[in-house]
Every structure is written in structure tokens, then in C-alpha cells.
TrEMBL record:
Every SiaC family regulatory phosphoprotein domain range: 7-123
Compositionally biased spans, kind Polar residues: 130-140
Species of origin: Candidatus [Bacteroides] periocalifornicus
Full protein name: SiaC family regulatory phosphoprotein domain-containing protein
Region Disordered, residue ranges: 124-149
Length: 149
């Protein structure tokens, strides 16, 4: 499968879907047509999980989102929840929040309550300025231009 990388905009998150099982969404998700934005992401993840990878990990750091995005994020998490049930220990989900942003932490806990069987790890980050550094370490680009997929 081809890696997908989408740059963040004012209303859409940065997305990285690696064929090695590392999946990342970071930023804001409050677009008008969340279903259209998330459709190729959900298709990619569904197809990827059907290949029965040894490991799949999703890291989410969503700052702000609207109700349309919640539905799509739940669909994404449900795919991983189903996979985790079939393949115990093969799936990791991490919800990152910026230190001091209790609303962001509460959002992650809300998703955990909606999918109680899916173990979502909560991870605190020092500050939002780490995002650029995190993105370089995620995609390994460290200064190279990002490719759009």
C-alpha cells in the first residue's frame, strides 16, 4: 500500500498513514464535509487492516473538532477496535494532548468512554511548539519537503 500524507490546513489535520502500520492525525478537524475528507482515510485503514499487519498504531492529537468530525473519528477508532478484538496486542491507540489543555484531555477521555473496549493511551505533551519537531520525527523528513499523497 502507498503511504498517504496530507498537510494540515486551518480546518483539516495533518495525516500520515504509513504502510508499516504507523498512523497519525494531528491538528484541527472542523471541516464542513468531514465525511468527504475522512472517506479515503477510512478506506485506506480498512484495506490496510484487512492485510492483517503485525502491528497497527494510531496517534491522535486533535486540538479542535466539530460534531461531523467526531462521527468520522469514531468510525476510524471503531475500525481499530474491531481489529484489536480479532488480534489482541496488535493495535495501539494514543491520544496526545498539550499540557494544560484539559479540554483536549477530556476529548480523548470522551472517545475512550464511547469505545470502552479499545484501550486508548493518554499521553501529555509539553507544548504545541513540539508539533513541527514531532512531524519530522514521524515522517523522517527532517527538513525535506513533504510529499502529498
Amino acid at each position: 500500500m502507498q503511504t498517504i500524507e496530507l498537510k494540515a490546513t486551518q480546518s483539516t489535520p495533518y495525516v500520515l498513514l504509513n504502510n508499516d502500520g504507523r498512523l497519525y492525525l494531528r491538528g484541527r478537524s472542523y471541516m464542513e464535509d468531514a465525511e468527504q475528507f475522512y472517506h479515503p482515510i477510512l478506506d485506506w485503514v480498512s484495506t490496510f487492516l484487512q492485510s492483517v499487519p503485525a502491528k497497527a498504531s494510531l496517534t491522535l492529537e486533535i486540538e479542535h473538532f466539530n460534531s461531523r468530525s467526531v462521527r468520522q473519528l469514531l468510525r476510524l477508532l471503531s475500525l481499530l477496535d474491531d481489529y484489536a478484538h480479532l488480534h489482541p496486542g496488535a493495535c495501539t491507540v494514543v491520544w496526545e494532548w498539550v499540557k494544560g489543555n484539559e479540554d483536549q484531555l477530556t476529548d480523548g477521555q470522551m472517545f475512550q468512554e464511547m469505545l470502552p473496549e479499545l484501550r486508548i493511551q493518554m499521553r501529555e505533551r509539553e507544548n504545541p511548539s513540539e508539533e513541527g519537531q514531532s512531524m519530522n520525527s514521524i515522517n523522517g523528513s527532517a527538513g525535506r519537503p513533504e510529499e502529498e499523497g
